[in-house]
Amino acid sequence: MRAAVLRTLDTPLSLEDLELDAPRAGEVLVRIEAAGVCHSDLHYMTGDLTAKLPIVPGHEGAGIVEALGPDTGDRLAVGDRVALLWRPRCGECEACIAGSPVLCRYGRVFAASNGLMDGTTRLHAGDEQVHHLMGVSCFAERVVVSQTSAVRVPDGVPPEVAAVSACAVITGVGAAMNAVHNGAGRPLAVFGAGGVGLCAIMGAAMIGADPVIAIDIDDAKLELARKVGATVTVNARTADAVAQIQDLTDGGVDWMIDAVGQARTMEQGVAALRPGGTLVAVGLNSADATFAVPINELVQRQKRIVGALYGSSNPRIDLPRIFSLYLAGRLPLDALIATRRPLDEVNEAYAELRSGAAGRTVLVP
Predict the structure, then answer these.
(1) Using CA atoms, how far apart are residues 41 and 58, in angstroms rounded to an integer?
(2) Sheet holding 19-20, edge to edge
């Protein structure tokens, strides 16, 4: 099986032939049809976030079920088209029972072991173990994943759209649907018009926020933001973003979604809130990254800062909702897909991502 392998930090991925074990109890084998090129993988590739090496990156994927392991029940069948989730759902821990499955205890198992739910790997290069990233590792022709990491995809949803929906879309749209409350008719801004930011803009438009303000430093990305729902755009390279937002909204926004994850944008995001406003943080950074918050402004103006992992979603409920909204024409997800590349061009795809290319690149093994 062909796969892209990270062996050394900050070096190109190597394309290798790996052995993939058969699925064990509660697991499925999936042939990958599409895999999104996401910035989160880059954090692991550069060492901003840590993982055991060697490892196969890729966590935004979709494909077709080719085999079932023992004790998988009737949730999935061979031939099903599925999108892959990078958060498992055991259904038994406190987080799952409380309705916050993105905080499932098995997320820590994935992170600590870089294996599947039992902490072991199905990937090998001869006698050498190769690890899984986020329980998915879809920069490969095939994957073995937990059955809880696979959600059926309805007819009419292309593989590329299904793949990006399982990460960028559910994170961005989910933040607008789940972390923003009573947003209709109220000003909302999104810092960053990359893949997740564009999805947050779509979600903000869908819930009726007004105006929907997109902030970025790239005019091409801002043009794409207008196409997917932004009513106003601000180029933070050429303008004072905070002053512009305050002028546009008579004092600030009720909701700010930060899809960048940089200290500067989050500080600007807090400053651009009106009294009682909320910053929703969805962008990741290195594990030790921090940002400064003026204490008195936080207290006296009653501003709030909340995190939204995976769009604060319940993926088994929210991902089918997203597919339904797409099929109904309510989410223009096709506009996200900028480039399609074969798996062998994964390093070129990440060079494009580093250069700031607009839209999402999808690998097609």
Answers:
(1) 6
(2) 19-20, 123-125, 128-132, 55-56
- CA-CA distance, 172 to 191, in Å (whole number)? 11
Phi, psi of 304 (to 5 degrees): -130, 150
pLDDT tier at 87, thresholds 50, 70, 90: confident
Residue labelled with tokens 């023992």: 70
Which helix (H) or strand (E) is 316 found in, with range?
helix 315-327
Q: Which two tokens stand for residue 227?
A: 């196409």
Residue 300 DSSP one-character state:
H
Helix, coil or strand: residue 96: helix
Q: Which domains does the chain have, with CATH numbers?
A: 2-153+332-364 (3.90.180.10), 171-308 (3.40.50.720)
* φ/ψ bin of 58: left (φ > 0), alpha (ψ from -120 to 50), beta (otherwise): left
Identity at 271, one-letter amino acid code: A
Q: What is the pLDDT of residue 335?
A: 95
For 346-357, how does the pLDDT look when each residue is reduced to its tens digit (9 = 90+)? 999 999 999 888
Q: Which two tokens stand for residue 235?
A: 């180029």
The distance in angstroms from the start CA to the end CA of the chain is 11
DSSP notation for 4-70 = EEB-STTSPPEEEE-EEPPP-TTEEEEEEEEEE--HHHHHHHHTSS---SSEE----EEEEEEEE-T
Q: Which residues pair with 212 in a beta bridge?
A: 188
